[in-house]
Specification:
Helices cover 43% and strands 23% of the residues. It is of the alpha/beta class and 283 residues long. The chain has a five-stranded mixed beta sheet with strand order 4-3-5-12-6. A three-stranded antiparallel beta sheet has the order 10-7-11.
Length: 283
């Protein structure tokens, strides 16, 4: 008697295999870890062999799991092609994107909107967050495309653009003669924070943190209002800001870069990546 594979179990299996993690897979499928674990156990019982090697943090496919993964993708794709054929409608595809706040709030949204209008059967799920968090989710397979800020050459990518940094203060306030420089910073593990501390320590300039904020817009506003100084990308400078120079005792920081990382899983994500790349070239 032939065994019939359950489509729901196959979709769960594909998601768990791609993410390598029940937690991330449960978030993507809007389910619980226990439910997904039970579904994988049912599928393993049907196949008669284990599909995953359960490590401390990540799940990796067994040899049987690798074979099933290849067939499962084809089975689901054939199912989608059948319904597209009889209904005349393309199956909706979801692209999961991740951007830092300043990109998600305006830098790339026109390109995303135009892409959505041109591809009505593709859904975009956009997540905003810190670059390191986005890259971690990307590595886990939870995001298909991300734009992040990183140190030069930190992570390999085919799409990279220079991101020069500068010291900024309010155009109407001066702190050059202060006994201790008031700093405006991102939270711990945020970009530029440790660079500020290190550069000022090298110059033996006393400093203290006066304002911490996870939002770039919040930091820009705090600088403009005279709460302190900060190290930010040159493109983040507002008309209410003034650049502090090396002659004033603020050493140049190492250049960062903007990088786009893409899982080449479909033609649609490749098209979107090229469009975003063209827009980022103009920044």
């Amino acid at each position: 008697m032939n065994t019939l594979l359950n489509f729901i179990l196959l979709k769960t299996f594909i998601t768990v295999a791609e993410t390598g993690n029940f937690t991330v897979a449960s978030q993507h499928l809007n389910s619980t870890q226990s439910t997904l674990s039970q579904q994988i156990q049912r599928l393993e019982a049907l196949v008669g062999q284990p599909l995953f090697i359960r490590g401390h943090r990540m799940l990796t496919l067994t040899e049987t799991g690798e074979v099933l993964f290849s067939y499962a993708k084809k089975i689901i794709a054939l199912n989608d092609m059948f319904f597209m054929k009889i209904t005349g409608n393309a199956v909706i595809q979801t692209l999961r994107l991740g951007f830092p706040e300043d990109f998600a709030s305006g830098q790339v949204t026109p390109t995303l909107a135009a892409f959505m209008h041109e591809h009505p059967n593709i859904r975009l799920e956009v997540t905003s967050g810190l670059s390191r968090q986005l890259y971690q989710h990307y590595q886990q397979g939870a995001l298909d495309l991300i734009i992040v800020k990183q140190r030069k050459g930190e992570f390999k990518s085919d799409y990279r653009w220079p991101e020069p940094l500068c010291w900024l203060t309010s155009a109407n306030n001066e702190y050059l003669n202060a006994d201790s420089l008031p700093l405006i910073v991102f939270p711990e593990n945020g970009l530029y924070r440790n660079d500020m501390f290190r550069l000022l320590d090298i110059e033996q300039r006393p400093w203290h943190i006066t304002y911490t904020c996870s939002s770039l817009a919040g930091i820009q506003s705090a600088i403009a209002d005279g709460l302190g100084i900060s190290l930010l990308p040159l493109r983040a400078k507002l008309s209410q800001h003034r650049i502090l120079t090396e002659q004033e005792g603020f050493p140049a920081a190492e250049e960062m870069e903007i990088a786009m990382h893409v899982h080449d899983s479909s033609d649609a994500i490749k098209v979107l990546a090229e469009r975003l790349a063209r827009q980022l070239e103009q920044l």
